[in-house]
Every structure is written in structure tokens, then in C-alpha cells.
Design a protein that fits this description.
There is one protein chain. By secondary structure, this protein is mostly beta strands. Strands 2, 4, 5, 6, 9, 10 and 11 form a 7-stranded mixed β-sheet that branches. Strands 1-3-8-7 form a 4-stranded antiparallel β-sheet, with no helix packed on it.
């Protein structure tokens, strides 16, 4: 089994920055893709950014140019650098690991609040 542990959420003012990190442990050899999703109050969970083992990235249109995903395959971590944060970025952010057998694992979530 794979466990995902997130860190780095918190409260930030509009225009500020935060960095989220996610560490994977356990049977990580079959992870194909890691990424971040978020769920805002009253909304469905949505993709924020993902990165495959080969470095291919996908970003939500709403975060392009502001957020950057990165992976350290040697350390089995995935990070999300979030700049120019907006109030509409407020959500619980979840780390995700997607496996070659199409299974996936989720982290427990970390709250990001953008407010003045």
C-alpha cells in the first residue's frame, strides 16, 4: 500500500504564495502519475495539476502561469508552488497518486485559505 502525507497548507493573503508538498511511502514503484486536486466549499473536486513519471504536466486553466508542479522521483515527493494566490483558490488540496494498474490513492487533504 501507498501512503501520502501532505504538508504546507495555511492562510495567506491575496497575491501571496504557498508551497504544498506530498511525500509517498510504501509500494511506490508502480506509481505512474502524481498530482494535486482541490475541493472548494460547495463544489466538486477538480484537478489542479499532475505530472507523470516522464515529466508530462497538466494544469487547470485557472492556475496556469501561477502554479508549478514538481516531482522528486528519488525522494518520492510531489510539490505544488502556488503564486499570486486568489480568494477563489481557497480549498482543501489533495495529493493523488495514480498507478499503472489504474488504481489511485489520496492524501488526507490540506486546507489552503486565501483571505485578507
Amino acid at each position: 500500500q501507498v501512503q501520502l502525507v501532505e504538508s504546507g497548507g495555511g492562510l495567506v493573503q491575496p497575491g501571496g504564495s504557498l508551497r504544498l508538498s506530498c511525500a509517498a511511502s510504501g509500494s511506490i514503484f508502480s506509481i505512474y502519475r502524481m498530482g494535486w486536486y482541490r475541493r472548494a466549499p460547495g463544489k466538486e473536486r477538480e484537478l489542479v495539476a499532475t505530472m507523470t513519471n516522464g515529466g508530462r504536466t497538466i494544469y487547470a486553466d485557472s492556475v496556469k502561469g501561477r502554479f508549478t508542479i514538481s516531482r522528486d522521483n528519488a525522494r518520492n515527493t510531489v510539490s505544488l508552488q502556488m503564486n499570486s494566490l486568489k480568494p477563489e483558490d481557497t480549498a482543501v488540496y489533495y495529493c493523488n497518486a495514480f498507478f499503472a494498474n489504474f488504481e489511485e490513492v489520496w492524501g488526507q487533504g490540506t486546507q489552503v485559505t486565501v483571505s485578507s
